[in-house]
């Protein structure tokens, strides 16, 4: 999940009797499954929450380029290099769709970028972990994209039209990435002893951070309840995490890899696995900026933005000159 | 035992035999190819190494571009170039006939076997320098590929016909950016002029000819590089003029890459690019 701990400004989920006539009509449209479009009336809380959520998702896509970008120049074959490059490029494309979706809510891409760079907007905790071996490219595709899809597939039905449409495009590509990641993992797990070691090591390092992607339990969270009422969140964090574990454990077994959880057991009664919780203290530390790569990731984004200022200014200055020149040409006629 | 006199011998082969050295298993593979075949192999690695090394350099920008659209755009060009590399080096391996694949050629040769021009292996510099290099390369690439579509070697013509569509698009895009940045702000102009000043002497290598080129030109397989200069100038000079950039004086060309004498940068690039294949020989990825 690329958006974590998204706040709604709500102190409780408002009942129908607390709503204005406009709000009631809005909520009824959502309840009927209608899509809300950019120019239509919406409560301020809905708009702000969506900006936070879509913005955080967009930021996660572009910061998410970095851990995989770390291996593009070391990909072991021409085909693997092309696949990885295409994947990271897709992520930049997802960032672009999502910034566009956020812009329909009245916030510019530059504003969102500034908030990211200032540290007032977050991106997913997962991208603050390092990619140490080539097998991590498999683990990221398989586990990280796999976890993201769990959340994003239901979001195709979200109430906000532009977000829903962005999700439909993104999900197609994400599931392709996940299959590629699994394929890479398979190659490693069935390769030489060194490759198999890399594969297991990657699973060991990414398992709990992947579980953290869903965020801590939110069964008692007001924000989640409000977001679910607005249909900008479709399932609780625990539901999605359970679904992810149930899907992923058999895949790990198929690879011949061991999930690093001694507490992992099939629970016949609930029809799912029992599993150990990740270390939530670690999660809060990473969110607070103390993960292994927070400084480098954000630093790389800020550097790219600052180093690119002259480039963006140059293009703008040229466009302005062209406008002036054509105005002069018209005047001269 | 003193080894110094042995090392000073003029007859290394006799020394090796005396030391009981077995002939290297590469000996058979290192036997020279017939001249025509060798020239074609040389040419194919020149094409493939240019696209490989430039594609690699461009891929270094991924995630670090000045604006999202350019990040995506540069990755697109890198992808095209890596795709073309698979064709050129794949064919080079076939022509060589020693069972080497495109990946073997890309990941298991050392610097002296690389045949790319020096310009493409230079570090990226700022984004302006990357764009200027791309523009100079694209202008040559289009002229070269256009000539190659008429190659007497059908497989070369086939690859060129596919690649030229991509190269046209690359040139359109890089030329557009050169104009906009050259004629943008004072700073963007200064940076683009500085990039041109650095790169112009390196572009000269694209038009130098040697014996392999002569063999290929005679056989109608590939054009004499020198013959592409007019088309290059016709593509480049008007764009530079529109960009308000001045062509550096002089005709000095930095050269060496096409015969395997490179800058210090290529070795470092290969150390990174070839790491996994070198560290884990024989693994399948």
UniProtKB/TrEMBL annotation, chain A:
Its EC number is 1.14.13.149. It is an enzyme of class 1 (oxidoreductase). It holds the Pfam family PaaA_PaaC. InterPro entries: Aromatic_CoA_ox/epox (IPR052703), Ferritin-like (IPR012347), Ferritin-like_SF (IPR009078), PaaA (IPR011881), PaaA_PaaC (IPR007814). Residues 1-20 are annotated as: Disordered. Residues 9-20 have a biased composition (Basic and acidic residues). This is 1,2-phenylacetyl-CoA epoxidase subunit A. It comes from Methylobacterium ajmalii. The lineage of its organism: Bacteria, Pseudomonadati, Pseudomonadota, Alphaproteobacteria, Hyphomicrobiales. The gene is paaA.
